[in-house]
């Protein structure tokens, strides 16, 4: 397809209707995908006991079992770099011509976190590199922008990373829905993991259900209102999608959701599952798709795509070319429902082994240790700071800040050597 497009362009020939139709229906989507999170976690039973709550309120009412604790030595840049580094080959880095980082935990009001990631990973400097923000929708916005780029440049490769740290504060109602991590996705033509269809419906409205002002590290949220808006936006986009493409719920083998906590997606699924002749299959797929979210917590922009990874690794019924529906939501608010088909190159056993290995090798913190890490961070009002990095063995770490410049470091896991990245 890429060669045919180039020849048509160079020859100056006009494009036929059939060529344009074929061109815009090209197969493109996620060719590689990886996840990274902190090496630390807390158990939700421990948190419930420390806060004087019934553990079932967290384990069943929220659907959360464990929660990632992000140390001060990790930020959205290092989380993103750690996720992407595990899937990118030297050839990928040379051919990527667009880097998009979706986040609502940006580190600068001007300079995109994507620029840091591009530099840390050694990605070609002939790439567009920028950051996208719309609450938890940023990763999906990045994917759709990347898909548009691929449809015009089918030989390209686009790196999209959804990286975030969810913070609501200690001893707050939202504390149980904290977490963090990054999902990196390499978009190409003829993808092995997920073929994204050019079928989508979206809805936006100016709503104050969740926001994080520039002067705050923690979010402000109207929890009950946000839950209701989430389900409303799902139903709005789902109905629009159905009307636009004449597809019913039984045309899907699975529906997955943005999961700030697992129970939230379940509420949305329950609102339409009665329309299916195979509700048990959809519920089983949802259970598979929430597995890792319940072990990590809220990833904001990455939550939907951790759920995708969980589905691919844990659902035993999915086959290549099965259609799945994806619902993305970002407070404020933006919702989108789109569809995709499972690729021929998915290897569930490999994905499951990689993710289980990462999550099982984390260290459990006491609540006191968690609280101490939570309170350790770069001051919002500036100033130099150096962190103790001896216990964080992640490949990419944040050492601290000098002269208003963040100091990143690459740790070679094989030799134990370290390479300091110059301040940019």
Automatic annotation (TrEMBL):
Protein name: Hydroxymethylglutaryl-CoA synthase
Active site: 104, 136, 258
Domain Hydroxymethylglutaryl-coenzyme A synthase C-terminal: 200-274, 289-373
Metal-binding is among the record's keywords: no
Keywords: Transferase
Native organism: Lentilactobacillus parafarraginis F0439
Domain of life: Bacteria
Entry's Gene Ontology molecular function annotations: hydroxymethylglutaryl-CoA synthase activity
Domain Hydroxymethylglutaryl-coenzyme A synthase N-terminal intervals: 28-189
Segments for region (Disordered): 402-424
Ranges in a coiled coil: none
């Amino acid at each position: 397809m890429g060669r045919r497009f180039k020849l048509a362009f160079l020859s100056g020939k006009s494009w036929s209707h059939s060529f344009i139709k074929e061109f815009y229906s090209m197969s493109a989507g996620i060719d590689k995908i990886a996840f990274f999170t902190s090496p630390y976690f807390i158990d939700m039973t421990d948190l419930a006991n420390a806060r004087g709550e019934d553990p079932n309120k967290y384990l069943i009412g929220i659907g959360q079992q464990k929660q990632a604790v992000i140390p001060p030595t990790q930020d959205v840049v290092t989380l993103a770099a750690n996720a992407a580094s595990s899937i990118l080959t030297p050839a990928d880095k040379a051919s990527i011509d667009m880097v998009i980082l979706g986040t609502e935990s940006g580190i600068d009001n001007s300079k995109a976190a994507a620029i840091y990631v591009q530099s840390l990973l050694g990605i070609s400097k002939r790439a567009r590199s920028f950051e996208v923000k719309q609450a938890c929708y940023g990763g999906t916005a990045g994917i759709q922008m990347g898909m548009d780029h691929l449809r015009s440049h089918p030989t390209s490769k686009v790196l999209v990373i959804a990286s975030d740290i969810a913070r609501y504060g200690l001893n707050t109602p939202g504390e149980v829905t904290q977490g963090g991590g990054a999902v990196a996705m390499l978009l190409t033509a003829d993808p092995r993991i997920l073929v994204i269809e050019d079928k989508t419906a979206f809805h936006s409205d100016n709503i104050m259900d969740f926001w994080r002002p520039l002067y705050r590290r923690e979010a402000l949220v109207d929890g009950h209102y946000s839950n209701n808006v989430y389900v409303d936006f799902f139903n709005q986009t789902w109905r629009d999608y159905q009307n636009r493409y004449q597809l019913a719920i039984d045309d899907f083998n699975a529906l997955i959701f943005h999961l700030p906590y697992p129970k939230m997606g379940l509420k949305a699924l329950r609102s339409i599952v009665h329309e299916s002749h195979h509700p048990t299959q959809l519920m089983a797929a949802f259970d598979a798709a929430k597995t890792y979210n319940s072990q990590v917590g809220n990833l904001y922009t990455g939550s939907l795509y951790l759920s995708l990874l969980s589905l691919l690794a844990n659902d035993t019924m999915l086959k290549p070319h099965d259609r799945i529906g994806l619902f993305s939501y970002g407070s404020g608010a933006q919702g989108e429902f789109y569809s995709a088909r499972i690729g021929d190159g998915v290897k569930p056993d490999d994905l499951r082994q990689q993710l289980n290995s990462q999550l099982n090798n984390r260290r459990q913190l006491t609540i006191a240790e968690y609280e101490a890490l939570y309170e350790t961070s770069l001051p919002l009002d500036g100033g130099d700071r150096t962190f103790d990095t001896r216990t964080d063995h992640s490949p990419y770490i944040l050492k601290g800040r000098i002269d208003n410049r963040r100091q990143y470091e690459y740790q070679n896991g094989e030799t134990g050597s370290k390479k300091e990245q110059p301040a940019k």
